[in-house]
Amino acid sequence: MTLPRRPPYVSWTTVVPLLALLALALTWGRYLAVPFALVIAVVLAGAVLSAVHHAEVVAHRVGEPFGSLVLAVAVTVIEVALIVTLMVSGRPETSQLARDTVFAAVMITTNGIVGISLLVAALRYGTTRFNAEGSGAALATVATLAALSLVLPTFTLGAPGPAFSAAQLIFAAIVSLLLYGMFVLTQTVRHRDFFLPVHHDDEPAAGRGNAPTSERAEVETGDVDESGDADEHAAPPSTRAALTSLALLLVALVAVVGLAKVESPAIETVVKAAGFPQSFVGVVIALLVLLPETIAAVRAARRQRTQISLNLAYGSAMASIGLTIPAIALASIWLKGPLHLGLGATQLVLLALTVVVSVLTVVPGRATRLQGGVHLVLLVAFLFLAVSP
Fold first, then answer.
1. What range(s) does the Sodium/calcium exchanger membrane region domain occupy (predicted)?
2. Of 69, 198, 219, 305, which is most buried with the most CB atoms under 10 A?
3. Taking the mean position of all CA atoms in its chain, how far away is CA 332?
C-alpha cells in the first residue's frame, strides 16, 4: 500500500515563518528571561533559514541576476528596520549604531562572504572563475559609496564630531540612491551578462531558458558535470509557487526583524557582560541579518557559480550603504541626538586594506584558496579589533 505524499504546505519552510510570526506576537514589548530568549533565538534562526529557502525559490523563478538582487534588498530591509527601531530609544550609544552596523556589513560581505565563497569553490574545484567586469563594477560602486558615506564624515567640518551637517547628509543620501539605482540598472538591464556565472572557458553562462545545446543535452541525459547540480538545471517553479514563496519570504523577514528587536536587550546584555564595546552590538546585528546571504552564497560557490556569490556579497554591501544611509537620513528628521557616520582610524585602515585586496582579487577574474584565505584573515582582524579596539 502506497502512503499519500505529504502536501507541500506542511513543509518546515511553510510552518516556521508562521510560527515565528506567532512568537513575535506573543513576545513583542516584553523582557525575556534567559530560557525564553534561547527559545526565541532558535525560532529566529529557523526564520532566517526559511527566508533563504523562499528567496532562492523566487530567485530561481526570476533568474539571475534578479535573484541576487531580491535577497540583497530583502536583507537590507531587515538591517534598516533593526537600526531604526534601536535608534528610536534615543540613548547616547545609538548615535554610532548606524555606522557600526553598516561598516560591519561591508566588512562581513566583502571579506567574509567573498572569502568563504572563494575558499569553498577553490577547495572543491582548484580554481574558481567569475566575471571581472561585473564584479569590478560592483566593487567600485561599493568603494565609492563607503567613501562618500563613511569616510568623508570623519574629515568634514560642517558639524562637530564625525558627522555630516544636514545639507551634507541630504547630499550623501541622494548620491547613494543614485549610485545604487545606476548599478541596479546596469546589473539587470544594460549589461546583465556581466553578472551571470561563467563557464570554464570564461564565457558567461546562458540565462534561464537559453542554455547551450551541449548543456541541454547533458540535462536531458542526466549527465551533468561536477560543476553543477540538479538544482541549477531544474525547471523554474510555477508562478503560483513563486508568489507563495514571496509571501512567505515577507512573513519570514517581518518575523526576523521583530524577533531580533525582541532579542536586542539580551544581545546588549550579553555584549556588556562579556566586556565588549557597545559598538559590537552593530557587528552582531550585521552577522544576524547577513546569515541568509552567507548561506546562499556558499551554496552557489559549492556549485561553482562563484559569480552569484560575488553578486550576493557586493550587492548586499552596496544595498547596505545605498539604502540604509538614505533611510537613516530620513529617520533623523524625527530621531533625537547626533548621527555619527565617520569611521575611526582603525576602521579606515581596515576599509582601505579591504578595497586594495578586493581589487587584486577581482581583476584577474579567477581566484584560488589563497585569495579566500586572505579575505577571511581580514574578517578575523576586523572581528578581533571590534572586540579589542
1. 37-188, 245-386
2. 305
3. 24
